[in-house]
Amino acid sequence: MFDVIIAGCxxxxxMLAAELRxxxxxxxxxxxxxxxxxxxxxxxxxxxxxxLMAMRGLLERVVEHGRRRPAAGFFAAINKPAPEGxxxxxxxxxxxxxxxxxxxxxxxxxxxGAQVRRGRAVAGFAQDDEGVTVELADGxxxxxxxxxxxxxxRSTVRKLLGVGFPGVASRTETLMGEMEVGVPPEExxxxxxxxxxxxxxxxxxxxxxxxxxxxxxxxxxxDRAEPPTLEDFKxxxxxxxxxxxxxxxxxxxxxxxxxxxxxxxxxVGRVLLAGDAAHIHPPIGGQGLNLGVQDAFNLxxxxxxxxxxxxxxxxxxxxxxxxxPVAEDVLANTRAQMELLSTEPGPRAVRRLxxxxxxxxxxxxxxxxxxxxxxxxxxxxxxxxxxxRRLPDIDVKPGRLYGLLHHGRxxxxxxxxxxxxxxxxxxxxYLGDPGAQLDVPSxxxxxxxxxxxxxxxxxxxxxxxxxxxxxxxxxxEQSPQA
Length: 482
Ligand SMILES: Cc1cc2nc3c(=O)[nH]c(=O)nc-3n(C[C@H](O)[C@H](O)[C@H](O)COP(=O)(O)OP(=O)(O)OC[C@H]3O[C@@H](n4cnc5c(N)ncnc54)[C@H](O)[C@@H]3O)c2cc1C
Hints:
About 30% of the residues lie in helices and about 25% in strands. By secondary structure, the chain is α+β, with helices and mostly antiparallel strands. The strands form six sheets. Strands 1, 2, 6, 7, 8, 9, 16 and 17 form an eight-stranded mixed β-sheet that branches. Helix 1 (about 10-20) packs parallel to helix 4, helix 1 packs parallel to helix 8 and helix 8 (about 290-310) runs antiparallel to helix 9. The site of flavin-adenine dinucleotide (FAD) has 32 residues, from helix 1, strand 2, strand 3 and helix 8.
């Protein structure tokens, strides 16, 4: 008997498993593949995801394996410098291969005590009042209290759950792969630069040891059941660039579409969905993995609270209430970006106008904050603008704020030094006199770093502690300290 079974050990499943383990939840992750993905999609970890890594003490490990780039140039691939005034201590983009970030997250989850079993596909399940019986493809049955489908865009869990996945089917398809080229690098660079002036779904980028990462529009939309062939690449390179660059010796070949779909519900009883299982959209702006990891971060502590028995009745449902609108927004911005990549005269004119508008720092910053998710504000009701937003990684007396969040607990930052977390001290830490960078009297942070309350009144604080952290336990004999 497990507390939570997670279908899928991609980035979303691994992150969720780690978050659950911070709270001692017994978690099993099942993945249908016997080996982790080897597919080298270079993924950009955006600011908010870097902040999450910092909040769990993973940032240095992750940064070691990636390349820091400016937080710029990823909205519709419009080439502008990073905006000024980005309010983050981690204001850069980290380029890192997807298999690497997946491995690091899985290692983190396993180090915290999660079990991962590979070559085990979830094929069915049935839920009742006490839990979920999960059936694997080989007929084995497992039992848990909750099941989370982190099993990607073609999610079996979502389909079995009967949750609708409305949206728009792919209208374009793009070939992507790694291969060697038969012409000198300068010739490749010159031709690519010319084509990219108008065709944005096209590149050949050196990937080390004579290998190039190649992206080119496909001839049409397929069912993507079969990977493309090298001949498909040659044909499309000739059609777009007038030459196939003598490509040969492919390492891997793939294709992706631009379907945009959002699950109607993220939860049905004891079964939940997260990551690509809940939403798919074109990869423009590099947001999918980031969005999935952030879903997991939002869900983890809430599901743990439910399992541990202290969750307020509506807490688990705030997962959908908070994350569904965020995904809706990402779907909308990827759609807009795809339009801006079009080679038609109308969208090209809009692109030109937007390119001019992005010279205004406010516009540039707004778009970058959107893509990097540092602009996300959850609706916690009326209150100051900071309520519902994440608190940046400010300096606090013992160091940096995110260093105090490694254990996934709530945190009260109390400048008044007369408030207490009382009977919630088993779930919420306390820091008095946090330092000058906090410019409000006191702030209650949820385990995901979002501001749940701002004020200076103990009764009001207690009401909000109860709202997010349930019924208090026995207060400790002495005042809680961080
Ligand atoms: C070309 C390209 C470039 C991209 N670039 C970026 C980028 O720069 N930044 C970014 O944020 N995102 C990017 N993405 C998107 C990103 O790859 C996905 O959003 C991300 O992989 C989603 O993670 P996930 O864990 O939700 O799902 P997945 O990564 O799809 O993982 C799902 C896992 O579930 C397993 N599984 C499936 N079915 C079952 C089953 N029945 N039982 C058990 N296990 C199962 C699979 O084996 C897999 O391991 C890109 C995507 C593409 C195609």
